Amino acid sequence: METLMSFFSVSMIPSVLQPNVSITASVGGLVILECHTTADLVVAWFWLKQIPGQKLNPIVSTYYQEIKLQEEFLNESRIQFKVDDKKSALIFTKINSRDARDHCGVLLYEKLYFGGGTYLAVNDAKPVKIIQHPVLDSHHVGDSVNLHCSIFGASCSGGQSVYWLRRESHSGIIYTDGDRKDQCETISVTVSTVQSCVHKVPKSLASDETYFCSVVTCGKLIVGNGTKLIADGKACFIAHIPIYSWFCSFSSLMSNNDSFSEVLGDLLCSRHETLTQT
Fold first, then answer.
1. Nearest to 201 by CA among 135, 131, 129, 130
2. 17 or 74: whose pLDDT is higher?
3. What does the domain layout of the chain look like in residue ranges?
4. What's the CA angle centered on 124, arms 33 and 114, to 5 degrees?
């Protein structure tokens, strides 16, 4: 019981407060992340970053009045740190896409206490759009089907991951399909970058299914309009779906498929029309 209480004593508590749960900034802008405490005596302050799916890494720390910036950020003149008795601030100037991550203020006062964290979302100047292309050939139930999508827009410097999501009509559940070993080809054009991807459905089922091409980039999950496989007796054909993209924000995204599937239900999504059909 004592061990259990000790564990909870280092958990998130009200005495360390980060006023902003999330902040959205544009590339090149300025952001101030704040952390407050009600403690009377602060021995040390810590700020850490957390890339979704990875462990916490320190950015800066203090021991009384001594400030120590981690080696990774020593040459980052755009990062400043301010501190007084009951408040600290991490200041980013000239925000870039690499800063789209979760930052957490941490206080050490006899024991370790964590604030709730502030999720910093960076808007890229060039939004990413996904268009899924119709499949015109007819197929039979049990045939393999190749699905195509095009991803428009430059990715963040941290790279991007392409996923195919599958939703069955009878369950309404969306989950990752396969092991992501899909064929994607990057095509550079004058104004943007286009990534063309193909996903092979090895064996179409007898029930209706919708497949969504999606990409994780710049701290967001962007989902295509979807391609629906409809089973009609012995035939299987592709339904027409209006071209939409779904833009989703998330607070955590793990690197493996199982964990990725689990967080899909917690995504906050909004529909954005990318192409009007006439």
1. 135
2. 17
3. 9-123, 129-273
4. 25
Question: Residue 91: how many CB atoms within 10 A of its CB?
Answer: 14
- 9-123 shares its CATH topology with 129-273: yes
Q: Which of 186, 244, 253, 270 is nearest to 216 (CA)?
A: 253
Q: What is the pLDDT of residues 91-132, one digit of tens each?
A: 888 887 666 565 666 665 567 777 888 888 777 656 778 888
Residue 154 to residue 268: CA distance in whole angstroms: 23
Q: What is the mean pLDDT of residues 163-168?
A: 78
- Contact by Cβ (8 Å): 133, 122: no
* Distance (Å, whole) CA 46 – CA 57: 10
Beta strands in 8-43 (DSSP E): 16-17, 22-26, 31-37
Give me the pLDDT at residue 47, please: 87
Q: What are the backbone dihedrals phi and psi of residue 195, each rounded to the nearest 5 degrees, phi first?
A: -110, 120
Closest among 276, 253, 278 to 265, alpha carbons compared: 253
Q: What is the DSSP letter of 5?
A: H
CA distance 173 to 180: 18
Q: How many CB atoms are closer than 10 A to CB 138?
A: 10
CATH annotation of 9-123: 2.60.40.10
How high is the pLDDT of residue 229?
A: 74
Q: Looking at per-residue confidence, does 108 or 184 come out higher?
A: 184
DSSP 208: -
Q: What is the pLDDT of residues 7-18, one digit of tens each?
A: 344 444 547 888
273 pLDDT tier (thresholds 50, 70, 90): very low
| 8 A C-beta contact, residue 107 and residue 10 | no
Architecture of domain 129-273 in this structure: Sandwich (2.60)
